[in-house]
């Protein structure tokens, strides 16, 4: 029996991806990113100064906060601010986004400045963390460009490369790219792959839900993820260097 995806995509095809820059006037960078129905608002805030433990070291800092709106899914969830406690999943994804972005930032060139990325999920249909990383990088690039224009830092290649992320997994025994919730919820193996534009990996998160996966299986999934991240990196560059290009030279190309 030939494997068919519910949305009709090929096994190696991304969902429709859209990255909209300058979505809000507020924020030094703001991006609305969507992977199919999954939609995330990523806003970058540039402020002078660094956390106390970094003061006097001549380096900047990049961090992130992730959250989901109460009705981002089919059923309403209580706001974590009302519950008075940030959940483990929220904390883990926030840290993932932050360290993924810091990997490509020259923190010394950033100077003693901090960029915070707020990633708020408006609608969730699988892949919220991967969409957040991909969108947050574009918002980060705009915030860096703003910092250079405001003369808060020197004009140089502060970003060593781009960063994107995509999910892969085995569904019904078939390796597939970019899983919506319908596939993610029944996947035998689910994996998130974060990579730089050059292709090297930042983080690989993989879990077998029903049976272990082999080294060969892992290779299949990484091949799919590599192709997906290459396409996402292309989309990021098209958006950043298209009709309203950021400053030349701040991203190593």
From TrEMBL:
- Keyword tRNA-binding in record: yes
The EC designation for this entry is: 2.7.7.56
CDD domains, per database record: RNase_PH_bact (cd11362)
Q: Name the coiled-coil region(s).
A: none
Q: Which GO terms describe its molecular function?
A: 3'-5'-RNA exonuclease activity; tRNA binding; tRNA nucleotidyltransferase activity
Query: What Pfam family does this protein match (any one)?
Result: RNase_PH
Biological process (GO) annotations?
rRNA 3'-end processing; rRNA catabolic process; tRNA processing
Annotated phosphate binding lies at: 89, 127-129
Its recorded reaction(s) are: tRNA(n+1) + phosphate = tRNA(n) + a ribonucleoside 5'-diphosphate
Q: Which residues form the Exoribonuclease phosphorolytic domain?
A: 13-143, 162-225
Keyword Magnesium present in the record's keywords: the answer is no
**Which keywords does the record carry?**
Nucleotidyltransferase, RNA-binding, rRNA processing, Transferase, tRNA processing, tRNA-binding
What's this protein's function? Phosphorolytic 3'-5' exoribonuclease that plays an important role in tRNA 3'-end maturation. Removes nucleotide residues following the 3'-CCA terminus of tRNAs; can also add nucleotides to the ends of RNA molecules by using nucleoside diphosphates as substrates, but this may not be physiologically important. Probably plays a role in initiation of 16S rRNA degradation (leading to ribosome degradation) during starvation.
Q: Which family does it belong to?
A: Belongs to the RNase PH family.
**PANTHER family assigned:** EXOSOME COMPLEX COMPONENT, EXOSOME COMPLEX COMPONENT RRP41
Quaternary structure? Homohexameric ring arranged as a trimer of dimers.
Q: Which HAMAP family match?
A: RNase_PH (MF_00564)
Name this protein carries in UniProt: Ribonuclease PH
């Amino acid at each position: 029996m030939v494997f068919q995806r519910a949305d009709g995509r090929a096994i190696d095809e991304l969902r429709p991806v859209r990255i909209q820059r300058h979505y809000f006037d507020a924020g030094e960078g703001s991006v609305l990113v969507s992977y199919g129905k999954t939609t995330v608002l990523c806003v970058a805030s540039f402020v002078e100064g660094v956390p106390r433990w970094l003061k006097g070291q001549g380096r900047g800092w990049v961090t992130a906060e992730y959250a989901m709106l109460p009705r981002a899914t089919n059923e309403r969830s209580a706001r974590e601010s009302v519950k008075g406690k940030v959940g483990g999943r929220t904390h883990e994804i926030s840290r993932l986004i932050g360290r993924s972005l810091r990997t490509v930032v020259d923190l010394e060139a950033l100077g003693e400045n901090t960029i915070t990325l707020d990633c708020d999920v408006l609608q969730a249909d699988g892949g919220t963390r991967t969409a957040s990383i991909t969108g947050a990088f574009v918002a980060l690039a705009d915030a860096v460009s703003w910092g250079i224009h405001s003369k808060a830092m020197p004009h140089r290649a502060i970003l060593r490369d781009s960063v994107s992320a995509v999910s892969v997994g085995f569904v019904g025994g078939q390796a597939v790219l970019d899983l919506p919730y319908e596939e993610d919820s029944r996947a035998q193996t689910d994996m998130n792959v974060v990579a730089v534009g050059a292709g090297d990996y930042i983080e690989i998160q993989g879990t077998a839900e029903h049976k272990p996966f082999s080294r060969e299986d892992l290779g299949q999934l990484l091949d799919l993820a590599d192709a997906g991240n290459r396409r996402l990196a292309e989309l990021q560059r098209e958006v950043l260097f298209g009709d309203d290009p950021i400053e030349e030279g701040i991203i190593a190309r």
